[in-house]
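Question thread 4412

I'm putting together a teaching handout and wanted feedback from people who do this every day. The idea is simple: show students a protein as raw sequence, then show them the structure tokens that encode its fold, then repeat with a second protein so they can compare. Below is the first pair exactly as I plan to print it.
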Amino acid sequence: MGKGLEFAKKFGLITAGVLIMAFSMSMFMVPNKIAAGGVSGFATVLHYVMSLPTGATIFVINLPLFLMAIRRFGKTFALITLYASFLTSIAVDYIPVPVLTTDPMLASVFGGVVMGVGLGIIERNGGNTGGTYLAAKLLQQFLPFISVAWVMFFIDCLVVLLSALCFSWELGMFSMVALYVSTKVMDMIVEGPGSARMVYVISDQADAISRRIMDEMERGVTHLSAKGGYTGNEKGMIMCVLESNKELTRLKSIVKEEDLRAFVVVNTASEVMGEGFKSHE
């Protein structure tokens, strides 16, 4: 598959994922005051408290995060994220869809499932809608001792708490249910079964790639010695074990940004034990 066709396929899937996520908000979340964390949840609260349009609020909140993220993550990643956020705001505010239920329990469960599917498709294809993830990555520059996952969890909990204070504690609990369901469904789609991967990267930019993997993905790498069989030249080679397809997508993006001529081998790891994975028994 050519690069142009591959990009078009990923772009189309990201678009589909964004629309699915936006429809989950319009059909389930926003009409039932379910604020399932993140920027979308915060925008839902502001929609009812200040009568602000939900989609436009999502985009306005995300915009400064994109501007700060361009330097750290690169223009390509930032532009794709900006596109996803802009399409989300348009779909939520201007594409009419029916409200499927007024029961908050059904809305939190089914809304969480649909949102998780959309987010999973976006993440699996290298996209991102911004929001909590970008905020967590940017905050981690000032709090390097805390993982991105914990920063995201803290932000999401604050949004859920805000919804409980502004709406009711019962709706706050339903929001927590929706957040849990969407996260689990997204992880299931992104990671899939047998998701551990062992990756070998042979590149003249091995040092730069390994630094970014450690800094941006918080994964350890091992440097190996390698020599070209034909040329006899020494080559930089690193080995890294990843926990999910989501991490693999991010690693491949880093490799492409650092060295388009890099040689990458990906194997499925049936079992991994050690720091960051399952403990030794």
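The second pair follows. I'd like the answer to focus on this one:
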Amino acid sequence: MKTNRYEAMFARLKKEGAFIPFVTLGDPDIETSSAIIDTLIASGADALELGIPFSDAVADGPVIQRAGFRAMAAGVTPADCLRLLKNVRAKYPEVPIGLLVYANLVVHQDVKTFYREAAEAGVDSVLVADVPVGAAAPFIEAAETAGIAPIFVVPPNADEAAIREIAKRRRGYTYFLGRAGVTGADREMQTLLPSRFKALQAAGAAPAIVGFGISTPEHIRAALDAGAAGAIAGSATVAIIERHLEDKTAMHEALAEFVRKMKAATLSGIRD
């Protein structure tokens, strides 16, 4: 399994939390997207969570939806995204790379082909946002055959049965929703209960990373204090790109400042 990069990351961080920014590949174009990824990593991102542009991104709020539309308007295709991923992997051989995609993108050509090509591009994990674990058998099989960690979402109100089922994967990380609904930095995450993270740990789940609603250093600290291993910031990161489309220098400066501040919060959120 190609989960050793996640395992190595968590081992390296130890009591320090992971900060993982999300961006849409090809937003606003392939060249700029490549440079954005360079900035994220240079500024302290521990891993990457990346989206492939898709017209019906039902789990995404308007900010990330617009990112997908910008990329598609620039002519970016899934094949372009795979080529970009190969370049990213070549430059950053140790950085964990996760994809957050939708089922139509996976089944469009063939499930096995999608995962094989993702693995060849250097992808470590894939979260198919609109496929729950109970319906994911063919996705799990194809992922594991290709050496990719299948990632699943744990909602804040997940019951013990759901937690046990997701914990069976034990690879990569566990995506813990900071709140119900779609992605977005305009709504606060829910209060995170330490009991939820303890239940995941007791079930043997992969380390929990909180996503949805993460937009400030305070959110990072709250997630770590509750027992998470780190946090993903999607809409807050993509919004910076959107605000600076006409000034790429300012875009990279703002992204770098954001990542540095969010990463610094993981250093002050030491967990026992």
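Top answer:
Good format. For the second protein you could add a caption like this: The chain has a mean pLDDT of 91. The first strand starts at residue 18 and ends at 24.
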